[in-house]
User: Fold Tripartite tricarboxylate transporter TctB family protein from Dentiradicibacter hellwigii.
Amino acid sequence: MQNPSASLLSRFAMEAAIALLTGLIGGIVCYGSLEFGIGWGDAGPEPGYFPFYVGTLIIAASAVNLIMAFVRHRRDAAEAFLTREQGRRILAFFGPMLLFVLVSSFLGIYVGMVLYLFGAMVFQGGYSVMKAAAISLAAAAVNFCLFEIWFQVPLLKGPLEALLGIH
Assistant:
């Protein structure tokens, strides 16, 4: 069995990745501002002047953060940013939401809602199958009435719309 407190992601790796990401964003800002000119014209600064220097500051701050990450890494080599147990909890939270989005895109939001609520109630909440089914179906029915009938805002229904004759 694996140690749940073992490091899944080190603090150094996360700090270095974020520093590199923000440096990349700063580089994109600088590159984009070159298109508009970064110097001074007859009327003052050109449109890309301030964005270029803001991007330069972002790159400089990112470089400092990257250097500091390497300095701290030499001192605190084993510091964890994310442990296995924390990663498992995050996956238990975001995994079902990702499945909800995927199911909703293909089968409609109401089918996704029923499946998400049912799964969350049974597998994470410990509810009985009958209670979870009743609540998830009722929630979908209430949302259908609320959005489709009362507010007249059609939501994605997928193939159910054609099957049930809902237009």
Remarks:
- The mean pLDDT is 90.
- Residues 89-164 form one domain.
